[in-house]
Prior knowledge:
Layout: E1 3-15, E2 18-30, E3 33-38, E4 51-60, E5 62-68, H1 83-95, H2 101-117, E6 120-126, H3 131-144, E7 147-151, E8 153-154, H4 167-180, E9 187-189, E10 192-193, H5 201-214, E11 218-222, H6 226-235, H7 242-247, E12 256-260, H8 266-275, E13 278-281, H9 283-288, H10 296-301, E14 305-308, H11 320-338, H12 345-353, E15 373-377, H13 390-400, E16 406-411, E17 414-418
Parallel strand pairs: 1-4, 5-6, 6-7, 7-9, 8-10, 11-12, 12-13, 13-14
Antiparallel strand pairs: 1-2, 2-3, 4-15, 15-16, 16-17
Helix pairs in contact: 2-3, 3-4, 4-5, 11-12
The structure holds guanine and fe (iii) ion.
The site of guanine (GUN) has 11 residues, from helix 1.
Amino acid sequence: xxxxxxxxxxxxxxxxxxxxxxxxxxxxxxxxxxxxxxxxxxxxxxxxxxxxxxxxxxxxxxxxxxxxxxxxxxxxxxxxxxxxxxxxxxxxxxxxxxxxxxxxxxxxxxxxxxxxxxxxxxxxxxxxxxxxxxxxxxxxxxxxxxxxxxxxxxxxxxxxxxxxxxxxxxxxxxxxxxxxxxxxxxxxxxxxxxxxxxxxxxxxxxxxxxxxxxxxxxxxxxxxxxxxxxxxxxxxxxxxxxxxxxxxxxxxxxxxxxxxxxxxxxxxxxxxxxxxxxxxxxxxxxxxxxxxxxxxxxxxxxxxxxxxxxxxxxxxxxxxxxxxxxxxxxxxxxxxxxxxxxxxxxxxxxxxxxxxxxxxxxxxxxxxxxxxxxxxxxxxxxxxxxxxxxxxxxxxxxxxxxxxxxxxxxxxxxxxxxxx
Length: 420
Ligand code: GUN
Ligand code: FE
C-alpha cells in the first residue's frame, strides 16, 4: 500500500453552497484513492509519513469540463470575431496543423504540464479530428497526471479543405481510435461530434448508436451564438430547436455534456433536465467571442446539472480560478439585467470542483472512494485585525488568483506538481 497523507487546513465543497473545513486536519489516500479527512490521524496510519503543510489551504483540485487542446497555441489571440467567423478564420486553420504528430506532441506535452501547474487534474477535452494526434494527447495527459475524457472530434461538413473527413472516414477513424485507446488507464474516450454545423445527420446517428451500444459519454456544443443557432435550424429542417438535432440522433443522454447553452430557452433547458444532460458553463469564452451571458444561476435553480469549463481558446486562460470568477461575474451580470439571484463563491467553487464528480461516477468533496485530486495553496498571510476563516481565505484566493498561488498538486497517488 502506498499512502498519501497531507496535513493542513483541508477545505472542500461537499454540497452546493456549503464549505467544510478541518483546520490542522489530515487528508488520507491509499493507492491514490481517498480514505477520509480526519481531525486527528487514525492509529492505523500512525507509522506512515505525513506531508505537513502547516496551516496552508488544501483544496480539491479542478475539473475543466470543456476545452480544446489544439487551440492552446492561440490562447489569448484572435478574439476579435464572433463564433462562426472565429472558427473559419483562426480555429480551423490552426487545428489542421495536428495532422503533424511532431507538432501535436510538442503542444500537448506543454498543455498537460500547464494544466497540472494550474491545479487541473481532470478534464473533458476536445482534440482535433486527427486520430494519431488524439492518441498523443491521451498519452501526454496520462503521463502528466491528468485523468478524464478525451474526444477525437468528428467533422464531415463545413470544415473546409483542410479540416474535414468524409462520413466514412470519420466513422472508421472513430472505431479505430476506440480500439487503440483501450491501453490507457486514467484517460478514456468520449464521443465528440464537434457541433451540428460540422456533422451530417448520418454521422450523428452513427455516433448516437455507438454511444448506446458501448455505453460511451458524449460532448458537444449547444446554443452558443445566434448565427450558429440559425445555421442549425437551416441545416435541420426536421428540428424545431437546436437540441433536437442531437436528441433525434441518440446524442441526448444522461452522459452528454453540452458546452455553453447561452441561448437555451425554457423548453430547451427542460429538455436538458428531463434527459439528464449536463451544461458546461464557460463565461469568459461567452464574452470573448461575443456569444452572450448564460443564465448560470437560473439553470441551477431549475435543477439542471451545471459544471464549468475554460473553453480554451475561446477562453483566454487555462486557470480554473479564472473560470470560477467568470461564473460569478456572469451570474452578477444576469442579476443586474434580469434580476435573477447570483452565485456565491462557495457555489461557484462547487461547480469547478465537486459538481463534475457525478460525471466520473464519484461523490462531491473529498469523499472516501474518490480518486485523490488535491492542491496546496501558497502562504496567504494577511495583516488582518482578526484571523481569517478558511472560507474567507478561499474567497481571497479565488478573487486574487495570483501567479504562484499553487504550491503542490496531487493526482491519484502522485504528486504531479511541486513549486519547490
Ligand atoms: N463550436 C464548435 N466548435 C467550437 C470551438 O472550437 N469553440 C467554441 N467556443 N465553440 C465551438
Ligand atoms: Fe468549445
